[in-house]
Amino acid sequence: MSAAPPPALSITGLHAAYDGSQILRNISLTLPPRQVVALMGRNGVGKTTTLKCIMGLVKPTAGSIQLAGRPLNGLRPDERARGGIGYVPQGRDIFPNLTVAENLELSLVVHGRAAGSEMARVLELFPVLKEMLKRKGGVLSGGQQQQLAIARALLTNPQVLLLDEPTEGIQPNIIDQIGDTLVKIRAEGKVSILLVEQYLDFCLEVADSFYVMDRGAIVAGGPIAQLNDTIVKQYLTV
After folding, report:
1. In angstroms, what CA-CA distances link 175 with 91, 170, 196?
2. How far is it, in rounded angstroms, from Cα 225 to Cα 202?
């Protein structure tokens, strides 16, 4: 009988601090293969810092991070990207003066691959981008830029996709489109997604399980069906 595959992403005992101020306190979470896990909580509780630690943009003071059983501690952000982590930061960070096509093509450099089938795949997932390949990224709407940012991350062929507040400032119809696309990506079975998000309905729609953070610590978690009113009122309602 073959052994079960390791988690797509595993974090154990993670601590992090900025300028002597403790931000993360003993964070442990697991992202199973081919699932979407929502990391939730109010503003300022450490969600983005957790993603930055995974990506290597913030150096933890303690703890371990593993990608499919491989330790990431000590690797640079570019090494983590080449190793299988795609990252869509809050605010999207596309290149506004490059065209949509140029933004996408830059991601293919990570693995040194030809465009071909991978480009066709993301344009099928985000058909609006296919109509705008020659437009500058900076003229796209917020929702279109978010789709471009996710498509760009997917072109790195990640095992794990980190999404930081993908619905922030996005019109409702585009939020629905992004949600549908994440469900499709999960169904493909190639990518696991760690989703930082405050929009409750979006999490309920796309996530398999959840963790809730408060004051730098994990305070609740489980299958998404267990995200009840008590947890929402105590830790998520503003």
Report:
1. 15, 6, 14
2. 13
> Residue 30: phi, psi to the nearest 5?
-130, 135
Helix (H) or strand (E) holding 121: helix 116-125
pLDDT per position as a tens digit, 34-45: 999 999 999 999
Please say whether the beta carbons of 28 and 2 come within 8 A.
Answer: no
pLDDT digits (tens, 9 = 90+) for 71-104: 999 999 999 998 999 999 988 788 999 999 999 9
pLDDT, tens digit, for every residue of 143-153?
999 999 999 99
- CA 111 to CA 107: how far, in whole Å? 8
Please report, for residues 37, 55, 56, 115, 185, the alpha-carbon distance to residue 208 in angstroms, rounded to integers and kept in the order given: 6, 22, 26, 31, 13
Sequential DSSP letters for 149-183 = HHHHHHTT--SEEEEE-TTTT--HHHHHHHHHHHH
Distances 134 to 44, 102, 103 between C-alpha atoms, Å: 38, 9, 10
pTM of the model: 0.93
Q: Which residues share a beta bridge with 71?
A: 66
Instruction: Domains for the chain: give ranges and CATH numbers.
Output: 9-236 (3.40.50.300)
Mean pLDDT of 5-18: 94
